[in-house]
């Protein structure tokens, strides 16, 4: 199984890029992991919020293959502690045969078509974070889950 973080728009702040790259490098030791970036949609000023969500949704769905398990990182999703998330990842490694995809939507969230395609929704917090922060928080939590599953001292109770 491979884990993919699918996100719209690049991360421009160097300090986020550096931190995300560090955790991505650490994850190589544990599990196949990749971040796939969908380029930002151009000329969004002429689009309504719904039109932008629809266009982003089409791009997200183009990246989903048969057999993929799609989890939306969404504020209405299920919330886990770090220990529960580690257990969740462990279960998925046994039940997802191909790719486990975690998707971060655009600034207005996901289109209805993406919600329909998704297998489930997960939230990292009830608080709102910038998309760049969500990427960092997700890769750090995935790394933390891997260290928990391997009984390594990174996570403290």
From TrEMBL:
UniProt EC number: 2.1.1.177
Alphabetic keyword roster: Cytoplasm, Methyltransferase, rRNA processing, S-adenosyl-L-methionine, Transferase
Residue sites binding S-adenosyl-L-methionine per the record: 73, 105, 124-129
GO molecular function, one term: rRNA (pseudouridine-N3-)-methyltransferase activity
GO cellular component, one term: cytoplasm
Subcellular location: Cytoplasm
Organism domain of life: Bacteria
Catalytic activity entry: pseudouridine(1915) in 23S rRNA + S-adenosyl-L-methionine = N(3)-methylpseudouridine(1915) in 23S rRNA + S-adenosyl-L-homocysteine + H(+)
Pfam families linked to this entry: SPOUT_MTase (PF02590)
Family as reported in the entry's similarity comment: Belongs to the RNA methyltransferase RlmH family.
Record-linked HAMAP family: 23SrRNA_methyltr_H
Purpose: Specifically methylates the pseudouridine at position 1915 (m3Psi1915) in 23S rRNA.
Assembly and oligomerization: Homodimer.
Protein name as catalogued: Ribosomal RNA large subunit methyltransferase H
């Amino acid at each position: 199984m491979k884990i993919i973080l699918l996100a719209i728009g690049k991360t421009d702040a160097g300090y986020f890029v550096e931190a995300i790259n560090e955790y991505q490098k650490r994850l190589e030791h544990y599990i196949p992991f990749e971040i796939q970036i969908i380029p930002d949609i151009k000329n969004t000023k002429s689009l309504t919020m719904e039109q932008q969500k629809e266009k982003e949704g089409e791009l997200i769905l183009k990246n989903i293959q048969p057999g993929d398990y799609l989890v939306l990182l969404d504020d209405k999703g299920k919330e886990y502690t770090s220990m529960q998330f580690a257990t969740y990842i462990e279960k998925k490694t046994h039940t997802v045969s191909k790719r486990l995809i975690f998707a971060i939507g655009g600034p207005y969230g996901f289109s209805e078509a993406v919600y329909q395609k998704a297998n489930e929704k997960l939230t990292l917090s009830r608080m709102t974070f910038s998309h760049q922060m969500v990427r960092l928080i997700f890769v750090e939590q995935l790394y933390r889950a891997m260290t928990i599953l391997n009984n390594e001292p990174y996570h403290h109770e």
